[in-house]
Amino acid sequence: FFVVASEAITVGDTTVSLPGIGSWLALAIEQQNIAAIAWAVLAMVAVIIAYDLLFFRPIVAWADKFRFEQTASQKRPRSRVYDLLRSTRLVPLVLLALGSIKASLFLEKLPRLPSIRFKTSARVSRTADRVWLALVAAACIAGILQLSRFIGSTLGWEDVASTFGLGLITLVRVSVLIVLASVVWVPIGVWIGLNPRWAERLQPIAQLLAAFPANVLFPFAVIAIVALKLNPDVWLSPLMIL
């Protein structure tokens, strides 16, 4: 979410765009190019699937041999990429080349640095903790005073009350959405967890949806709200729990 959002940042009259899907999506939204937005969604799905197949699953399959359990798991993680790397001759050749480079650089003959051990008493440790907490408290107090001076010089009490009121409205909206989402998805999650067959089928889809940045879908939601003439105060709220 934040990686995509941070690729196109606008602060005042300054706009910073980094190469990536986020800046592509921001430009597509600015130009109202629906096809470009769809291509951004497809590219994000392809990147997530490629990352899962080429990087995440091989690591999970490799790390499974270090797992220690009293009872054997029903199904061990498998990865075709990991099986391919194990059966190919390329990996041993690469490891052999790295070993020869290490030997040629005399890394094994470098002297080890002497281990340095610091002996601290309990009294010194408690004193250091108190000094550190005092410094942190002083920094927090100084920051609060500086922030209060800035707010007092630029904003009035009406602005502060309005900000807290709007924040309270947002808190109520988010709390209601969390309750509604919990009522719907907690029973579904429990049912999936109690059915191993369905859990195995839905796990890739759940992983894809969990890794997919929700802000990429915001333009389609806005287009649907405008096209169907829906109330934005109501239908923009579900975007918070995507």
Automatic annotation (TrEMBL):
The keyword Metal-binding does not apply. The chain crosses the membrane at residues 34-56, 131-151, 171-194, 206-228. Keywords: Membrane, Transmembrane, Transmembrane helix. It comes from the Bacteria. The keyword Metal-binding does not apply. PANTHER family: BINDING-PROTEIN-DEPENDENT TRANSPORT SYSTEMS INNER MEMBRANE COMPONENT (PTHR42744:SF1). This is Sulfonate ABC transporter permease. It comes from Pseudomonas palleroniana.
